[in-house]
Amino acid sequence: MRFEHWGGLHLFILFFTALIGLGLPWLARNFFSSRQRDRIGVILGAILLLNYLVYIIYRIEGGYWQIRYDLPMEFCNWAAIVTSLALFTKNRILAELSYFWVMAGSFQGVLTPDLSVSFPHIYFFIFFIAHSGLVISALYVVLGLELPPRKGAVLRSVLYTQIYVVVALCVDFLLDANYGYMRGKPEAGSALDFLGPWPIYLIWLEALGILFFTVLYLPFLKRNKVSLTN
C-alpha cells in the first residue's frame, strides 16, 4: 500500500516531528546541563548514521542494492552526514549547513514523501527516521546546542551547496542515476512539479534555495545585528 499524502498517518508524523523538533531543544536548554545537551546531540547523530546503515543492510539483504540508487548521494544523505558531524563537533559552518540544507531541502521529504510503502513496512521507519529525524536533529543543533546561523551564513551555505550540485550531476550522468532529482522529478509528485521541465526546474531550485535560505535566516538577523553592535 502506497503512503497517502496528507492522510491521518502523515498528519500525525508532521505533528510528531514538530513536537519533538521544538520540544526537545526547549527541554535541553531549560532542564539539562551542557554535558547532557552534548550527549543528546551525539545520540541524535548516531541515530542518523545507524539508520543509514540499516538502510544499506535492508537493500543488500533484499537484493535491491544498486549503485544507481544506493550510494550516499541523495541530498538528504549529505545533509545527514553534515548534521551528524555538526552534532558531534559543534562546528559552526556545519551547523549552518545543517540548518539550511535540512529546513530548506530535506523537510520537503517530510511534507511530500516519495514513499511507495506505508506503516508498518520497515522502509517506512527507515524513511521517516531519516527525514523527520533530520528535521529534529537540525533544529536541535540550532536551538538545543545554540549554534544559530551567523552573519554571512546564507552566502556560505549557497556556495557549499554548489559542491553537492556539481558532484550529484556528474555522478548522475556517469551512472545514469537521478541522485538529488537532478535529472528528473519524483514519481510520487512534489513541489518540483510547479517549476517546469528539466533543466529549467534546476535553475528555479537554485533561486528558491537562495530565497529559502534567506527566509530561514530572518529569525536570527536581529540577534546578529545586536551582537555586532556590542
TrEMBL record:
Provide this UniProt record's keywords sorted from A to Z: Membrane, Transmembrane, Transmembrane helix
InterPro entries membership: CHP02206_TP0381
In terms of superkingdom, the source organism counts as Bacteria
Transmembrane region(s): 6-28, 40-58, 93-110, 122-145, 157-181, 201-221
Q: Does the keyword Calcium apply?
A: no
Name this protein carries in UniProt: TIGR02206 family membrane protein
State the organism of origin: Leptospira wolffii
